[in-house]
Specification:
The complex is a heterodimer of chains A (about 170) and B (about 280).
Chain A lengths: L1 H20 L17 H4 L7 H19 L4 H20 L13 H4 L1 H24 L5 H33 L1
Helix pairs in contact in A: 1-3, 3-4, 4-6, 6-7
Chain B lengths: L1 H9 L1 H17 L16 H14 L4 H32 L15 E11 L7 E4 L12 E3 L4 E8 L4 E5 L7 E5 L5 E5 L7 E8 L9 E4 L11 E10 L5 E8 L8 E7 L2 H12 L4
Antiparallel strand pairs in B: 1-2, 1-12, 2-5, 3-4, 3-12, 4-5, 6-7, 6-9, 7-8, 8-11, 9-10, 10-11
The chains are: A mainly alpha (about 170), B alpha+beta (about 280).
Chain lengths: ~170, ~280
């Protein structure tokens, strides 16, 4: 348990730093924002209690907010996403057995199920965060376009990241 | 009582969830950027240190562009210097006896602190910039920030070593501007879509302008000196109100490659603020 928690913590720190230093600057066509740190919530061990996941979500969002001057946008969105994580996961994975310590990934869930779960989470997050962020500023169509492009960009990056993390894990075994 | 406690334990996830949502919303709805807490912005020293380190690498990327801009600016200043020197020479010949005439009053009013941009964004609806100069360098909230090309923004949160600037690309910032060689002024703000353009609104209908005219600061606020370049007029249209023009302005500052900036320190700010305060007090 503690080893899982420690590697998870390390992953979160890396993701937040990467988001702040690299991904926040990687905006495609002034539209598509890669919100890659969401992978931290997506890959959180599924058996962790909701209290813990919501707390982690809030702190994660708040940290990203501080780094990108968005003041509450990501804190709110991450909290909601962390809360909705389990129900979304169980949309695609019915079995409730042998989930102990399971971290959602391509390896543990299979590519198809992981892809569906990850896409749902990413689209939900992009829709929430981008709408909250640009409330009262932009037109509906611009927000919609931004949500679609950002979701595609983010999920592609997360899928790639997950492949890397999973492969490293296999090497370690 | 036991029932109540078990009710809370059973539903604790909902209480946690609601607590965090409320906390987030408190932050979210305090959108006025002047009230942001320094620890929750990039002026926070730990966060700014991370950006500072990353910037050590990034700052090399735009050197070619920065160099070109500086060379052009240098050439301009050189030309201005020569013409001013000539002017001074002429004035010296005219007023040898009276040397106080050579001390222009405006010169001492504004000073500049050179700062490095450690973080910046252009694609968000509300954009901010972090600079590596803070309170200890004399930077205070509501000071103007410019770069070699034009106006950049206004400082709003200041930490000891870093400060956060509201970018011109932020709908919360309104800048008093006028067209060069013309005394009518309007309010310039960002429309939120393209980082290269801003809108100059509330320009009186009798103002004469042509596409390509330079837009400069009006000097009516204590933040910026008069006549700092902002952009050029791209096209004009009738505003929402029939008595005013609305102009599309192409900004001089390239926010996407911004790397160096100067904070404008107004030495007369205390005096000006005192005057402004006096306005609100009823005369006895």
């Amino acid at each position: 348990m503690s080893k899982i928690a420690f590697t998870y913590f390390l992953k979160v720190v890396l993701l937040v730093l990467a988001q702040a230093v690299i991904f926040n600057n990687l905006v495609l066509f002034g539209m598509a924002v890669p919100l890659v740190f969401v992978y931290a919530i997506i890959s959180m061990p599924i058996t962790w209690p909701t209290n813990l996941s919501v707390t982690i979500g809030f702190l994660l969002g708040l940290t990203v907010d501080i780094f990108s001057n968005t003041y509450g946008v990501n804190a709110l969105s991450c909290t909601v996403l962390a809360f909705a994580r389990k129900p979304i996961f169980h949309l695609y994975v019915q079995r409730d057995d042998d989930l102990a310590g399971l971290k959602p990934s391509q390896r543990s869930m299979g590519s198809a199920a992981f892809l569906k779960y990850m896409l749902t989470m990413t689209v939900a997050y992009c829709a929430l965060a981008l709408t909250v962020d640009s409330l009262a500023v932009f037109s509906f169509w611009r927000i919609l376009l931004q949500i679609i492009t950002s979701s595609i960009f983010t999920s592609a990056l997360i899928y790639a990241l997950d492949s890397i993390f999973t492969r490293q894990h296999e090497k370690g075994l | 009582m036991r029932e109540l406690i078990s009710f809370f334990v059973r539903n604790s996830k909902w209480f946690f969830f609601l607590l965090y949502v409320v906390l987030s919303c408190v932050l979210l709805f305090s959108r006025n950027p002047y009230q942001h807490h320094v620890y929750l912005t990039t002026a926070n020293s730990a966060v700014a240190t991370v950006y500072g380190a990353a910037n050590e690498v990034y700052s090399y990327f735009n050197l070619r562009q920065a160099n070109n801009d500086l060379n052009e600016r240098n050439a301009l200043l050189q030309a201005e210097l020569i013409s001013l020197q000539n002017q001074v020479l002429r004035m010296q010949e005219d007023t040898l006896a009276n040397d106080t005439a050579l001390m222009p009053e405006g010169a001492r009013r504004f000073e500049f602190v050179v700062a490095h941009v450690v973080s910046n964004s252009v694609a968000k609806p509300y954009n901010y910039i972090t600079l590596n100069k803070g309170e200890l360098d004399g930077v205070k909230p509501e000071m103007g920030v410019v770069d070699q090309n034009g106006v950049v923004g206004i400082v709003n949160v200041v930490g000891p070593h870093y400060s956060r600037v509201i970018s011109l690309l932020n709908p919360n910032l309104k800048l008093s501007c006028k067209i060069k060689g013309n005394s009518n002024f309007g309010s310039l703000s960002w429309t939120g879509s393209d980082p290269r353009y801003a809108t100059l609104e509330e320009l009186p209908k009798h103002t004469v302008f042509h596409p390509g005219d330079t837009v400069v600061t009006s000097g009516y606020s204590a933040v910026f000196p008069e006549g700092l370049p902002v952009g050029v007029v791209e096209e004009g249209s009738d505003g929402k109100n029939d008595n005013f023009f609305t102009l599309k302005v192409k900004l001089f500052t390239d926010f996407a490659t911004l790397s160096n900036a100067q904070v404008v320190i107004n030495n007369d700010i205390d005096e000006l603020n005192k005057l402004a305060e006096a306005d609100y007090k009823p005369a006895r």
